[in-house]
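Milestone M4 deliverable, item 7.
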Amino acid sequence: MAALAALAVVSGCTANAVDARGRKPPVRVEGSAGAKGKDDGKAVSPSKDGGGASGSAGAGKDGGKPAAEPAEVLWSRGDRGDDIRRAQARLHQVAWLITPPTGTYDARTVAAVKGFQGKRGLPRTGDLDTVTWQRLRRMTHEPAAWELYPYGGQPAAKPDPRCMTGRVLCISKTSRTLRWMIDGRTVSKMDVRFGSQYTPTREGVFSVYFKSRHHVSTIYHTSMPYAMFFSGGQAVHYSSDFAARGYYGASHGCVNVRDEGKVAALFAQVRTGDKVVVSW
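Output delivered:
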């Protein structure tokens, strides 16, 4: 135990200014595929009859230019779902929506859409119609998972088969979640983040070998409360940086938890020797 404690003392995990997938935030790409809309991800038709927003609706009364046909509204205030979350992430990419995606078309989303429309000479309706949506898609890229859930809340992935027996900290890099499981039953779930591509969180099957309630990293001199070490200097612990910045940062290899209450309860239940599974 003295050797193990010494190993833990030289641990070091702290915040790292990269995204939660361990990479720099993706560069905006023009003309990339858009979020799945009401047409299951296919190109959205500008109008119900396949015509453009300025398509012909028959010749005008004066025999001149045809009257413009209004664009079809795809989403508007009050709508909810994954489509809205993807649209909000795209609005965030072009800095019209500052708050993170919520999946609810609220007043802030209406204001963001109006701003985006007005800047491009489109009718400022606040509704995401086909013309606005196509313009937004052309200017943005398909949102990554960390952009859709920058502050957590992503549904937990199905437990790894290795988590189904015994007492296990079941950690999924896919959904960025931790399940505390006992004999196949999920006791609690919480959001987590991982190390960057330069200091990745190790994957595999481990066990908790040392616990430290008030741990401080001797490498980075940062606080690591409720630390449960499972692989060298890597531990599950509370991170105030994760609580503040979400997935716009990363650890130096540890598994960060953003909910202090949940990790405190977890720390009280976990025993030395309990299994830890980290997987995709």
